[in-house]
Predict the 3D structure of the following.
Amino acid sequence: MKKHLFFAAALAASLSINAQYEQTLPLDYNDFFRADAINGEYLEKYEYQNTDQKSTSKPDGEELKADQWNRGGKTTDRAGSNPIIPASTLKYSNYIDNEKGKEIELANLPLNGESTVTRASIYSLKRDYTYSNKDYYLAALVQINEATGKGDVLTFDGNYTANGQRGRLFVKNSGSGYILGLGWNGDPTKWSDELAFGTTHLVVMKIHPLEAGNQTGSVESASLYIDPDLSKDEAGNTIFATVDGTGEIVASGSTKGIKSIRGITVRQRSKIAGKLAGLRFGETWADVVKKAEATGMESIQPSETAVQKVMVDGQLYILRDGATFTASGMQVK
């Protein structure tokens, strides 16, 4: 019997390794950091050579590299080195993807005499209109450890070679800490309260691309939520900022905006260092904003009926009088 089980397990593993990856939403750390989507301990598996690699008839190496992380083809976004991706250490409240998958290290790139050195790493999705005509959501855990300047670090992309970022999450130095903001294709007009370096925050970005074939009759927009309440739905949380791309629609009816989500882009910046993890991309708020489910619950002491302990993904939490605390006694907000 054991022999048969061994062969069955081996066959299943073989089929899993050789199976073609099928991209269906929502995507989470299992998708973004699959072994065939990354380059070992580094993020980017492929490098686009330019921003016009559209034809599948081009030689191998110039075709679309979907469903994996790639270095963008825009000349000005190709500095620095391939981001390292150790195991994630980031966590926020009882978010479902705490300390799961990989974390993307945002290196403080050397200036090399320039003030706008960047590197774009894109998870290429689909090059058609698969992800268009409706709202899409992106959640991420963000930890900024240093910021002496300003720049966007996470964005939706309308081009799979990282050449069409819209709805950009910005980081900016605020003196003793940093602040977050959302820009469409430029600087934010509204910034968050100051956040402390080294703390982890959950951001949720929502985007509505232009309707394909109806550019003049729809409005592209993006919204940002910071540290949402995981126990509430989208309507129960407050939008921090909303931006739109109406100014990009020109007289002819064409636009420089985004008609379909073709990638998720991470940008390393000079003057900004930190980490991103817990990425989730989906069609609804519920796809990306999830609480981890309790795996067990028992009374700590029979006499303390109002006190319980809960194991969530291997981490102990204490429930007392409706509040949640870590094992060390820190209250979870």
Observations:
- The mean pLDDT is 82.
- The chain has two domains: 21-288, 297-332.
- The radius of gyration is 21 Å.
